[in-house]
Amino acid sequence: MTEQVLSVADLVVEFPLGGGQTVHAVSGVSFDVRDGETLGILGESGCGKSTVGRAVMQLPRPTAGSVRLLGDELTEYAGRRLRRQRSPMQMIFQDPVSSLNPRRKVKDLVAEGPRMRGRSVSDEEIRSMLSAVGLDPDVVWDRRPHELSGGQCQRLCIARALMLDPRMLICDEPVSSLDVSVQAQILNLLEDTKERHRLSMIFIAHDLAVVKNISDRIMVMYLGKVCEVVPADRLAEHALHPYSLLLIDSVPEAHLPDADLEPEHAAERAGELPSPIDPPSGCRFRTRCPLATERCAVEEPEMREAAPDHFVACHHVEL
Amino acid sequence: MTNQTATPLLEVNDLRTVLHTPRGDLAAVDGVSFRLGRGETLGIVGESGSGKSVLGRTVMGLHTTGPTKTVTGQVLFAGRDVQQLDRRALRELWGAEIGMVFQDPMTALNPVKRVGVHLTETLRKHRGLDRKQAKARAIELLDLVGIPDPRRRIDQFPHEMSGGMRQRVVIAMALANEPALLIADEPTTALDVTVQRQILDLLARLQKEMGMAIILISHNLGVVAGRADRVAVMYGGRISETAPASTLFETPQHPYTEALLEAIPRLEEPPHRRLAAINGAPPDMVRPPEGCRFAARCRHARNDCDQELPELVPAVHDAAHHFACFHPVNQGGR
């Protein structure tokens, strides 16, 4: 049995809207991240994938549920204690430029984390970290974030995270704002970094091929719930949940135009994402699901094991 | 597919769009030529800064010579030179003959106008319909682009709709007057994959029904792959390679196209495959290199690549396949 770095159980995140209404952003999500593993979280906008990442970091603290990092229950801590306990976990965001203080220089940005925790950092240490993420210290040393490209800023964010010696990185859409050629550089860097520092990773993204490339297991989310957890190498051919299949079918790769597409069919697929304020009863995907029956409206599907490490929440998938 | 008859719908000859920036003149589009037949789809792919959006806007006549930029070359739309048209003639052209769809539907819609007004405005102006006729046609159009319950939707404001629905409204606006050419600049980039698929399917269906030509501009090779008859890859303000879509993806000749294809993670490949990243960054277009713009990042570059700018020339065995490279990668098969 592999050691679990992170263990999340029944995570719920709700945001009050006023007028007695509530946004059900995440509704009972459980998962583990094993030592050295990359867990991909896949889903479209509004599915709660970023909220899960933030709730794990206690940003903000989840409404309910448990988040155990290396055996420590993070939801019990606050303030300075929380900051210390969660420091083995570092986060990387989608927009690298806006997540950096525009007035600080690269050399200070890299050392910021340890210095805030009262540790002094030598120039030598900063230089070697910059080199490790593929930035030339002599070139970027005195630059500010706006003088760097998007890819360079993302490298800088990775360097900042690594300065704190993390056990785990949470990457929230780290490559979505980058060009294809730079995206490949950053994905390779994350993969190398993970190996060199023996990290575990949560990789949150909406791009199926990107998530598959970097993950060991993939958790597919829809409207605040987990539909399926599938080993990455099984995603393309053995995914089972109707929503996973819809996602795979939508990937624009060598699709020939659907000339015979019936207008009714198009309208059916147009089925819109229901509101997280008033999510559908039972299975949340049922309003867009081709397999949906009455049972789906009444009874919420349980996670069932389809194969080792492969779980799916659907009444109609045959196992 | 490609029908290169006597007068193509659109003919672009040696187009240059030079932006005058504080740092100096920036040739965003630097010598681009292509033709587009009626009913044909041209995909234009490139990374940020490649000049693909500026090209689309110059073709439309949104960029013309003025204090901040200089446009040279020719854009012939159905025989008329778009760059020579005055403001009034351009307004007649836009909406009526050339439709456009941009990346962010929210900025294309007026937040304080109801959805219906966006459509009836153009119908009344260009088609001379009265209020009642225009409304009926607007409802038809919303139905055409797959918006459920159009009678109710027509009175809604843009913020009451989802991103996918808004983009459908923008498409309905662009198509209201059945233009001969639709320019779609990153039409699905702001949308989720399942919605993206719906919008691309919708464009394909409407194109078939209306017989319009489409210029589909995207950074995503996958989006363009199955949708375009012909694809042009742009780098540093120039077309580096253009060919029928299947040819381009199966036997790319330009090292940049090849490198792009290798840099993309693919769903059918096993996890943890190392991606072939393209090192370095695109050239500074204020001071572009003298030789090939891609030479500095190219795996196949040799000495002569820095000397001279390669021209876009047809391949020896395939007149439909053009590329600008002295040392192409797939010559004579692999």
Automatic annotation (TrEMBL), chain B:
<keyword id="KW-0813">Transport</keyword>
<dbReference type="Pfam" id="PF00005">
    <property type="entry name" value="ABC_tran"/>
</dbReference>
<keyword id="KW-1003">Cell membrane</keyword>
<dbReference type="InterPro" id="IPR027417">
    <property type="entry name" value="P-loop_NTPase"/>
</dbReference>
<dbReference type="InterPro" id="IPR013563">
    <property type="entry name" value="Oligopep_ABC_C"/>
</dbReference>
<dbReference type="GO" id="GO:0005524">
    <property type="term" value="F:ATP binding"/>
</dbReference>
<comment type="similarity">
    <text>Belongs to the ABC transporter superfamily.</text>
</comment>
<protein>
    <submittedName>
        <fullName>ABC transporter ATP-binding protein</fullName>
    </submittedName>
</protein>
<keyword id="KW-0067">ATP-binding</keyword>
<dbReference type="InterPro" id="IPR003593">
    <property type="entry name" value="AAA+_ATPase"/>
</dbReference>
<dbReference type="Pfam" id="PF08352">
    <property type="entry name" value="oligo_HPY"/>
</dbReference>
<dbReference type="InterPro" id="IPR017871">
    <property type="entry name" value="ABC_transporter-like_CS"/>
</dbReference>
<keyword id="KW-0547">Nucleotide-binding</keyword>
<dbReference type="InterPro" id="IPR003439">
    <property type="entry name" value="ABC_transporter-like_ATP-bd"/>
</dbReference>
<feature type="domain" description="ABC transporter">
    <location>
        <begin position="10"/>
        <end position="261"/>
    </location>
</feature>
<dbReference type="InterPro" id="IPR050388">
    <property type="entry name" value="ABC_Ni/Peptide_Import"/>
</dbReference>
<keyword id="KW-0472">Membrane</keyword>
